[in-house]
Amino acid sequence: MKFSLSWLTHFLDTRASVAELAAAMNRIGLEVEGLEDPADRLAGFCVAEVLTAAPHPDADKLQVLTVNTGKGDPLQVVCGAPNARAGMKGVLGLPGAVVPANGMELRKSAIRGVESNGMMCSVRELELGDEHDGIIELPADAPVGTSFAVYHGASPVFDVAITPNRPDCMGVEGIARDLAAAGLGVFKPHREEHVPGAFPCPVDIRTDDPDGCPAFYGRVIKGVRNDASPDWMQNRLISAGQRPISALVDITNYVMLAFGRPAHAYDLARLSGAVFARRGLDGEQVLALNEKTYTLDSSMTVIADEEGVHDIAGIMGGEHSGCSQSTTDVLLEIAYFDPERIGATGRKLGLTSDARTRFERGVDPAFLDEGLDILTALILRICGGEASQVVRAGDPPHTPRIIAYDPMLAKRLGGVAIAEAEQRATLVALDFVVSDDWQVTAPLRRHDIEGPADIVEEVVRIHGLDGVESVPLARTDGVARPTATQDQVMKRRVRRAAAARGLNEAVTWSFLPTEDAGHFAGDDQGMWVLDNPISEDMKAMRPSMIPGLLAAVKRNLDRGTDSLRLFEVGRRYFRNADGSSLERPTLGVVLAGDKAPRSWASGKPAPFDAFDAKAEALALLEVAGAPTANLMVMGEAGSQFHPGQSATLRLGPKNVLARFGALHPRTLEHFDVDGPVVAVEIFLDAIPARKGASGFARTDYSPPALQSVMRDFAFLVDASLPAAELLRAVKGADKANIVDARIFDVFAGPGMPEGKKSLALEVTLQPAEKSYKDEDLKAISDKVVSAARKLGAELRG
Amino acid sequence: MNDMDALKDSALERIAAAQDGGTLEELRIEFLGKQGSVSVLLKTLGAMTPDQRQSEGPKIQGLRSAVADALAARKQALDNAGLEQRLASEVLDLSLPAPESPRGTVHPVSQVMDELAEIFADLGFEVKTGPEIEDDWHNFTALNMPESHPARAMHDTFYFPDHDAQGRRMLLRTHTSPVQIRTMVSEGAPVRIIAPGRVYRSDSDATHTPMFHQVEGLVIDKGIHLGHLKWTLETFLKAFFERDDIVLRLRPSYFPFTEPSVEVDVGFAIENGRRVLGGSGDAPGHAWMELLGSGMVNARVLEFAGLDPAEWQGFAFGVGVDRLAMLKYGMDDLRAFFDGDVRWLEHYGFSPFDQPTLSAGVGARA
Known about the structure:
The complex is a heterodimer of chains A (797) and B (366).
Chain A: E1 2-4, H1 5-11, E2 12-13, H2 18-27, E3 31-36, H3 38-41, E4 45-55, E5 63-68, E6 75-79, E7 89-93, E8 109-111, E9 114-116, E10 119-120, H4 148-152, E11 157-161, H5 172-181, E12 186-187, E13 205-207, E14 215-222, H6 231-239, H7 247-259, E15 264-267, E16 275-279, E17 285-287, E18 293-295, E19 301-304, E20 309-312, E21 316-317, E22 329-336, H8 339-349, H9 354-361, H10 368-383, E23 386-387, E24 391-394, E25 402-404, H11 409-414, H12 420-429, E26 433-434, E27 439-441, H13 452-463, H14 486-500, E28 504-505, E29 511-512, H15 514-520, E30 540-541, H16 546-558, E31 563-575, E32 581-596, E33 606-607, H17 610-623, E34 632-634, E35 641-651, E36 655-663, H18 665-670, E37 677-683, E38 709-718, H19 723-731, E39 738-747, E40 756-765, H20 774-789, E41 794-795
Parallel strand pairs in A: 13-16, 28-31
Antiparallel strand pairs in A: 1-11, 2-12, 3-11, 4-5, 4-7, 5-6, 7-10, 8-9, 14-22, 14-23, 14-24, 15-22, 16-19, 17-18, 19-20, 20-21, 25-27, 26-27, 29-30, 31-32, 32-33, 32-37, 34-35, 35-36, 36-37, 38-40, 38-41, 39-40
Chain B: H1 3-17, H2 21-32, H3 37-44, H4 50-88, H5 108-122, E1 126-127, E2 133-135, H6 136-139, H7 150-153, E3 159-163, E4 169-172, H8 178-187, E5 191-200, E6 211-221, H9 226-241, E7 248-255, E8 258-271, E9 274-277, E10 286-297, H10 299-304, E11 313-320, H11 321-329, H12 342-348
Parallel strand pairs in B: 1-5
Antiparallel strand pairs in B: 2-4, 3-4, 5-6, 6-11, 7-8, 8-9, 8-10, 10-11
Helix pairs in contact in B: 1-4, 2-4, 3-4, 5-11
């Protein structure tokens, strides 16, 4: 909300400086977002008198003036305005002054060969209005040499952010009341004498919707002239950022901005019959003052006459019955509307206005008669006319809230001890009524006061939050206890392990283009798709970590990056059966471009392959605490992956801990990325929690006493047999002796029978108590061979 | 000069002249082999009288060891020369680059969240999380923002068309505050938590992104007041920025979920074109910057969460994690946080070994 200092001081008798007032507003919760002093913009402009005016020797449209600035010799100024003439007073910009309208700094110069020492200014150049036919003409008594800012009465303008709980400060008077309570001066509320009606109100006013419009007061004023409003009012409205329109419109705007009280003036000639509040009819339309047509429904309160709707109650008036220059008789409406209904209607219509802002936050229910008196007095004074009697339909809420308050609460909740007398004085200054036993009655305008905590806020903010001393929270004895959960520790470890493996952590959007998300969505669960996305690119919640990373890969490759290792730890979004959100913590890795650049040692750049993805998957699963030795490599990584170069890692057939592999060429095509690209997704929530990790001591250390023995085996197997199956069979052939087995060669092709391949294994045998004899080794070998044979493997000679 | 001396001189001379291992071996056989000249001499000892043996023995033995030593020394010398020659042929240009290993990084948001967890752990706060796809009861109603509340509209909320089993409208949480409610409902009081995480608002410009990160703090206990809030924020910010001259300015404000509500400004100065926190905002060359929102938890919120406001009270605060990261580590564009540009990640990201610790300082120095 913007208002000028002179407007504020209309309601506040103060000697405080602008800076002090701004600081005080910040201190008490009225945040000053801007402070602009028009005097700064008008620096270097002064009242001057034109002494002589002569035609310019070399230009038809220019004149050469001599101008008295009140100081020193008169200055010569070249001027193009037709109304410049000897004897007039105007505004002179001196060299160094900056023209507000265009930011140009004035300089001594020569115009068509004639020296000019300044510029006589127009209204538009000083941004005081739109007129630009000539230079400003000041009255004859304007004191020459005075700073124009001082003469003009330019007053600094505050821009204050009013929090939604303080509609009472959405008028200048309310701000003055708060400042006075904070000791910045004496509050001067502005009230007008009631003007008794000279005749009965000719309009039947009533409320047929007492829920939406509990009170509708009104009166008619006949015989008004709707000319321009007076300068003082225009200046205040301009300081508030409002454009003056006509006296009647300006007066209602002025009352809204000065007192936080919206009201409406109807052109009586445009009304027919009774005027009343009612519910809208479904489908009923009204053309509002913003020249847009709104379709109403029965949840909305409107003001209507027999013919139709004239006002979307509390939000915006109708174009049809708005006041114009030809208006001679007006109906004034000052009403109280239900704040919730105003908010709901405004949201439904997507219509905001200054009136709605105030009504939906809650105007002062006790200000209907006073507001009407002020409106009446201003109209009679400015527009003339004669007022009817007042009609009052319905009653505004009038039951104040009374709160049992304990002054000790200021200390207990607010952390600052404030003397009872000071608390009482603060509350009284804010218009609260405080009984001897601290029953505190809030003024009706303070809709935000609901309980004792609100009273604490009032006394503490006026006392000053500076007075709150820091008090340490209680600490546990000794060193702080660990607080991280096992899950949090796991994520930290995984994240840092991934970075230690050379991957760069990215944070990508949780929402994706629906198509990208759909490409990665499973069939079983519907995606979460936003109703009101900020753009189509941010619409569906990601069902996978890969698409977001892939989009980042695309951006990086487009920038010329040749090697990418990105990962992200985040959530994928699914649904629980009850409709709530199931958010699965997931680690995604994408490796794209060159694994290693071309180099003097290795020659060509090497691309990533599915085994790089597998390496990341296993290493990170290991860090995450997964029992990697027990994992099975199985298929079904998903249609987004290369069908022959991808796999899942499972703990048991159902529990998929990760998927990895090369991405499907169609996936890369969809994301417009050149392949190959490999990816990993680790489903962190599928990793079983580690059991029994309560202590710190490791298991006993017992290295074998005897050296282990290596034996190599080569088997001929079906080409389609997964190597891991043979490995598992061999490892399990004699668990007492075989401690490890490793595949060290795979061979298929020339020399191999059709459909077969050779797998060579190195098996580590660990003797327990005594060294192996030949027959021991033979027995173990036989077990290995026979276990392998069950998979159709033949030992090669 | 007898024969033995002559043999010795000639043997040593020839051994010294040998140029390779083969020649040396031939000489060893010639002198010390079974039929070697020195071996033959040694054999003559057997046929000698004890007196002769007494006088000739040491000479012959001396000859044998002189020849053997010379052979060994020469062999060593030849081996050394050979090794040197081989090594001379194995020179590598070590100015060539070694195989590179990629340098991974931790995202600033993760780093700062780890820092927050570390600092607040010392103050006894646990880290809590909650769903990002929330229902409107947890995100608004329970936080004292009924449907008609103007503050709801100010949140620029992303909505889903869906409702949960209780008919609550599903949305993307606009703040991490619903975690307050969930924690109080499930764990009761006392509470000391922070809740970092992603939040969403339908807003996008140079300083706003539709997704960003917030950390919420909540303390519920007996006798907690604004003074505790002030101390906690001061203590946290001093630890986070590792500066003792952090000065806060508390301003009354409004949030539906707190009463009284307090906006917190922090003093800063511009140094080398950057905002550097520290000092009073009223000091020369300094100004105040709005940093976080906070307040005493509204009694209604406690009631919604099932706590008795007559027994429990406490404070809550919320601050942007990305904002904290930017102020501490000097990024100036929020949008870059979520772009995944590897150049940015390498520039602003952190080493995995920058795990924040209290003993080393939670921050990672540039």
